[in-house]
Amino acid sequence: MRISELSSATGVAVPSIKYYLREGLLPPGELTSANQASYDDTHAQRLRLIRALLDVGGLPIATAKEVLAAIDTQGLPLTWVFGVAQHAISDASLYEPVEGETNGTRAVRDLVAERGWHVSPENPGMHGAARVLDTYRGVGHPELAHIWEGYADAAELIATADLASVARQTDVEAMSETVVVGTILGDALVASLRRMAQEHVSNQQFPAPTKD
Amino acid sequence: MRISELSSATGVAVPSIKYYLREGLLPPGELTSANQASYDDTHAQRLRLIRALLDVGGLPIATAKEVLAAIDTQGLPLTWVFGVAQHAISDASLYEPVEGETNGTRAVRDLVAERGWHVSPENPGMHGAARVLDTYRGVGHPELAHIWEGYADAAELIATADLASVARQTDVEAMSETVVVGTILGDALVASLRRMAQEHVSNQQFPAPTKD
Prior knowledge:
Two copies of one chain form a homodimer. Chain A has a two-stranded antiparallel sheet. By secondary structure, chain A is mainly alpha-helical. Chain A has nine helices and two strands, in the order H-H-E-E-H-H-H-H-H-H-H. The first copy, chain A, is elongated, with a radius of gyration of 21 Å. The interface between A and B is large, with 91 and 91 residues.
């Protein structure tokens, strides 16, 4: 199909498609003349994935490009794909290494030891968790750090569900895509469910007064 | 203290402090002469909160302003503060209402009914969850929707921990701040712990080969 048909099929405007081609997010079509190319369903599929990563995942273009490259690289170990997806987040500064020893880094190390988690020091979550705990303290709310045992239980449930979805895939390329889509969009799903559950638990614990 | 001292005390540059004053995020200091104002510890505390919301929470300026206004409004019911915090997220488009009836909106409604959750249709999480489920399907990975039962269990654990931290507060202003800080930064903490737990569960299920 032509670029205008690719646009109709996916709902993505032609100038945006041209931008993704220029930036290398979308592979080029097959040239049918000097200034015309033909696209197929794999392009439509890739375009939908690009929009999902940018719009729902909130990724910057450069990060989306890295993530797509990880999916496309043949023979990349699945742990690498996980690593790329784990670092990809709209606000990457959250996961930058925390400098030195802080209350947060100590608390994270203690949690890992208590739970017997096998986590490498390079895991971006180690830095992100330490940064949030230090920020709780910095804004005068260290009491918020007490609740994170419940969060850690929740994280184990989420990760177990995540790995089950990966294990269900049979071919490696589909696995890579599942890892990327599930990790990046999964954060938004967890945040959404958390807001729903907050309202429910709040209603249970502080029920609105009823008339007799 | 003078603005330069406020800057030293908080590590926030003077031009940034002036910007937050202009935008109404930081209340003005007490005028000590025609062009000089004096600031106190409440300003330092507020500046740290502003930076936490912007840098760690990833909020845009306008959203941070709304959130701080909710904390400052005397006598605002706590459910309202929860509502403001629930909507505040770096990528607000995630929570915009999903138009019409979709696979995602049906799945979310079914989950709420099965779990007996008391959640209003206006809860931003209802739209966010439906949007992510529709996106999974749109990018050809509807199998990812099967794992969200585990996510819902996790969300209940997280929300229970969240409400416990609020109930532990005694004065209402501290409660409002706990709701805001805990809801907004808590997403980053959950995402971080999820990445740690993913590595741990992955190591358990797919252990690296060892030499004999």
